[in-house]
Amino acid sequence: MKDFDVIHRAYLNKADIKSIILKDALICFSEHGIESTTIEIIKKKSEISVGSIYHHFKNKEGIIASLIFIALDDLNRYMEHYLLQATNFERSIAAIVLSYVDWVDEHPLFAEVLFSGKFYVFHSQYKQELEQKKLNTKKLIINWFSTPEYKSRLNSIPLDLILSLIFGITEHYCKNWVLGRVDNRPKYFRRELALSAWKAVELYF
Predict the structure, then answer these.
(1) Most buried of 1, 5, 60, 97, CB within 10 angstroms?
(2) What is the mean pLDDT of residues 7-19?
(3) Residue 57 pLDDT exceeds 90
(4) In whole numbers, what is the pLDDT of the chain averaged over residues?
(5) Carries keyword Ion transport (predicted)?
(6) Residues 123-131: contacts with CB within 8 Å, 24+ apart?
(7) Which helix (H) or strand (E) segment is 187 a member of?
(8) Number of domain units in the chain
(9) Is 160 exposed, middle or buried, given 0-12, 13-18 or 19+ CB atoms closer than 10 A?
(10) Angle at 162 between CA 118 and CA 137, to 5 degrees
């Protein structure tokens, strides 16, 4: 399961207790929903004591936050990999969108937690770290476009809008797919989604 690969990239030791808890929590959240999943359910699935779970994550929100932070870091790694293959501004926009589409398509359980779990993290002690993770994504994109060959175009785009322009339609479609509201996988529309992002950005040139 590619979803587990995300955890393995964050925790190289597959036998690490945190890794085991997160993998089983991911399954529980998918099977029962985030709201209905309790620490007791995760304990039964993982066969790890409640005390140990609390020791490593403090509470359920800590588990959700850990999964979301791992997901956001992994998404950024995907994005960097795709961007390194882009040769101009338009292809860079496409690379960002395609990295997001492909990541969601390949990691649906993580994507579900990412879309459904942010509310819980935003209203918890982990809010500030969540904001920092989101800022890291914005910085990655801005830094990429801050090179001399792209800088003039970047300066034409309101920075407060840049993430919405690039991810808006793509994020909306991916969320609907994860929640079962549409049938076609995100990869089915990857070209259309990349083009829609470019058209939104192109309006500022």
Answers:
(1) 97
(2) 86
(3) yes
(4) 96
(5) no
(6) 124/61, 124/65, 125/61, 126/61, 126/62, 126/65, 129/65, 129/69, 130/65, 130/68, 130/69
(7) none
(8) 1
(9) exposed
(10) 50
Distance CA 118, CA 22 (A): 16
Distance separating alpha carbons of residues 142 and 89, to the nearest angstrom: 12
pLDDT band at 1 (very low <50, low <70, confident <90, very high): confident
- Residue that the structure tokens 């919405």 belong to: 164
What token pair was written down for 27?
């399954």
pTM: 0.94
Neighbours of 147 (CB within 10 A): 10
Q: What share of the chain is helix, strand, coil (3-state, %, to 5)?
A: 75, 0, 25
Tracing tokens 């809010």 back to the chain, one arrives at 127
Q: Residue 34 is part of a domain; what is its CATH number?
A: 1.10.357.10
